[in-house]
Design goal:
Elements lengths: L1 E6 L9 E12 L3 E12 L8 E15 L3 E12 L9 E10 L3 E10 L15 E4 L2 E4 L9 E14 L5 E15 L4 E3 E12 L2 E17 L2 E10 L4 E13 L2 E12 L9 E12 L5
Antiparallel strand pairs: 1-2, 2-3, 3-4, 4-5, 5-6, 6-7, 7-8, 7-9, 8-10, 9-10, 10-11, 11-12, 11-13, 12-14, 13-14, 14-15, 15-16, 16-17, 17-18
Length: 288
């Protein structure tokens, strides 16, 4: 159980307020729990700002013996806050199912935040949306291989709609290839795609972003990251290559190269170089 009470004074016209947060959580079974939360925010001048309340419940049901020896995790939450004039549409809820096992790692989740959700304490980064997040990964382990521990292939799309079902944003990450060695070294080509459908008072527009990442870790002290991306608004194709060598902890050498091209939609000059930059940095740490 946890309880927090904060009282603020008036200052430069800001009203004095009382904040209350109460949290309770209880373990059930061997690896699971249920919980509840309440937050309140009240201005001492009740005629200016009414008291606001938020309450919710959450749970997690976990087991490591699903179908004998498999892991399974189910988690969910539900929140509600008061609104002016009892406008409604102020809930936020989520549900997620995880199946994190070898050789299959799967999950599926859904989240919704309604248009009038505004917690009394804290914040909400986005409202009036529903998000779907399935994930599937295949992680085979070669039998008897002297060098390779396992491979990994998979992807995780993410779809945002409004609460009426209209698609607003689509993101897709594809791990085309990953290999892990017994030494701890690994290499992985990640491909991602993002689509946004934006509606504003000034006008509507759509954006598409494509990205490919090649991450090579030669050892725990040396790695190289290459990031290539293109977006349909600026029509700029960018490539960044970053190399880091950790000589000893706290002593590092960096090399970074960046190259940007622009697609001018002209067949005679497509992907003209915009800029090229190279940089090097050394970090030295003296402990005494």
């Amino acid at each position: 159980m946890g309880l927090l009470y904060v009282r603020t004074g008036e200052d430069a016209g800001a009203l004095g307020e009382d904040f209350l947060v109460a949290r309770v959580r209880r373990r059930i079974l061997r690896q699971s729990y249920v919980g509840g939360i309440y937050t309140g925010r009240a201005a001492r001048d009740q005629t200016a700002v009414p008291t606001r309340h938020t309450s919710g419940v959450d749970f997690r049901l976990s087991t490591s013996s699903f179908r004998g020896n498999k892991n399974l995790d189910v988690a969910g939450s539900w929140l509600w806050n008061s609104t002016a004039l009892n406008a409604g549409d102020s809930a936020a809820w989520s549900l997620r199912v995880d199946y994190p096992n070898d050789v299959w790692d799967m999950s599926a989740g859904i989240q919704e935040v309604q248009k009038n959700h505004d917690p009394a304490v804290g914040f909400t980064s986005r409202r009036d949306f529903r998000r779907y997040t399935p994930e599937l990964r295949w992680n085979p382990r070669p039998v008897g291989n002297r060098y390779i521990r396992r491979f990994s292939f998979g992807g995780q799309p993410s779809v945002f709609t409004d609460t009426r079902g209209k698609i607003e944003t689509v993101e897709a990450d594809l791990q085309a290839f990953r290999v892990e060695l017994h030494s701890g070294d690994n290499m992985q080509l990640t491909i991602s795609y993002e689509y946004n459908d934006v509606a504003l008072a000034e006008g509507d527009f759509r954006t598409r972003l494509y990205r490919a990442v090649v991450d090579t870790q030669f050892s725990p002290f040396m790695y190289l990251v290459n990031n290539v991306q293109f977006d349909s608004v600026s029509r700029v194709l960018g490539w960044q290559s970053r190399f880091r060598w950790i000589l000893t902890p706290g002593n590092d050498i960096f090399f970074v190269y960046t190259h940007n091209w622009i697609d001018e939609l002209d067949a005679s000059s497509r992907y003209r170089t915009l800029d090229r930059r190279a940089a090097a940095k050394a970090v030295y740490t003296k402990r005494f």
